[in-house]
Amino acid sequence: CHHCKSRSASAPTDTSKIHYEKFWLYRHCSSVQQRDRQAQKAGQLFSGLLAMNVVFLGSAFISSMIFNKVAITLADVWILLSILKVLCLFWIIYYLLGTSRQPHAVLYRDTHAGAIWIRGSVLLFGSCSILLNVFQIGYSTILVHCKSRVEIVFPSIGILFICTQAYFLWNHCKDCIQVQHNFTRCGLMLTIATNLLLWLLAVTNDTLHVEIESQLREVERRFAGKAPSSHSHWCNETALCTCPNTTICKVFQKGYILLYPFNTEYCLVCCSVLYVMWKNVGRRISHHHIPHTKPKFKLQGVVFGPLLGTSAVIIGACVFMMYQIQATSLVPSRQVFVIYYSYYIVLLPLMSVGAVIGTIIHALEKKELDTLKNPTRSLDVVLLMGAALGQIGMSYFSIVALVATDPRELLNSLSLSYSVLLIFQNITQNVFVIDGLHRRRTPPGKEEDTKEEQNREAYSQRRVSVLELGQEIRKASLSYIHTYSHLSWKRRVLREISFFLVLCNIILWVMPTFGAHPIFENGMERSFYGYSTWFVIVNFGLPLGVFYRMHSVGGLLEVYVTA
What we know:
Layout: H1 2-16, H2 24-67, H3 74-97, E1 106-109, H4 116-142, H5 150-172, E2 175-177, H6 181-204, H7 207-224, H8 230-238, H9 246-279, H10 304-327, H11 334-365, H12 375-405, H13 410-437, H14 446-461, H15 466-513, H16 518-521, H17 524-529, H18 531-562
Antiparallel strand pairs: 1-2
Keywords: Cell membrane, Hydrogen ion transport, Ion channel, Ion transport, Membrane, Transmembrane, Transmembrane helix, Transport
Subcellular location: Cell membrane
Membrane topology: Multi-pass membrane protein
């Protein structure tokens, strides 16, 4: 009987336990979510493996061209890349005319993806890349009697590929496609791999640069009435042919060298936008993730940042023009390199100090971190860290070369100081921007409006004398003014620093983009490492450095707006 009582007593506790996994609806929903998640991971894995194999195949071709120019020629690499471009063109056209027009194909759009400065960069760099291909076609057409037909066909396909890809990214970079997930992921990854291979070829292929530079130097020596040097004779012997018309050829050659960095920038920007699109395939965005009001760019409350930044831009423009005039001559002046490095040595510490102060203010604010899933912001952080490696890597190579030769010489010591300061500035700015991108901020005035409403409710509920009411108002006003000034002081300093860094990064983006490359033209590191090795190092680090400055402008503008 005691056993029966114990069983009856324990029965309610057993039946009161609810096992949710036995319900069909729970099992069905969880299995659907799990299958969807597994399918998404499988699709990302398969498309990633496709891109990896394409990149390895293209890298093997390019490496074979560098180390064994007899078996694998530049024309073979161009044929492979032309095939990849044509495949990408077919997929982009299919996406534009087929996938994106299906019912319920684009139900969501990522508002964080495809900022206007990113899409503007795609158009700017794409236009310059088209001009680059036009100059290459013109140069090859003039020398068609001794050039391969592939040298005309490859840039022609490149123009069509650049135009189609730029249109595709401008109109569809925010899409969160909901149909044909795997095919879209594979198409995006194939396009990313093609852009990466184009960037790798641009970094490593110095054939046309050597040919053009040798001919330009020979022409300048002829105009100067000097006898050609042994190096010029050697370059002319190795060059395939010489321009019949000096003026037209010189225009094409100068244009090609000037616009060459834009092509690498275009490939890097397109890769970043395409990667965000790849992450957004199949993504469903809930309504509370969509911002109802976007913060607007305003110049209110900033004075010193624009003044200092404008001064840096004006001085930098003057230094840049002086450098371009003197450094492009036959014998570059030593003074112009001293002025160029001195400008950087003054500006970089100011930028570093501003970034450090901004990081300290971020720590003092004690704001909550924004932990919502945001592929665009995650990519911004990765790109800032990755692109900074370009300038940091070049700086370390330069430091080793300068210390090993003669660091006490004036120009070497200036270049050494420039390299060290550049490393420190990149690190401090990255910390400031990444910390600012992850801060969750309340809009200006929201906290103050809430306090005013609370004060009004409190005063309406109380019934006090006129004297007590006046004392309460005075205390509340003093505390409100103190709090507001304390908040606005921090935010105002953040806005000043952000705006100053925006203008500084703009001028530091303009100078190397439009031809100021003292790290290659002063000849110190080039003579230490050799022409071909230093060409690869510079063409690897310089586009990343330019991309870093451009990407920093976007991140700093976001920090400025949300401050």
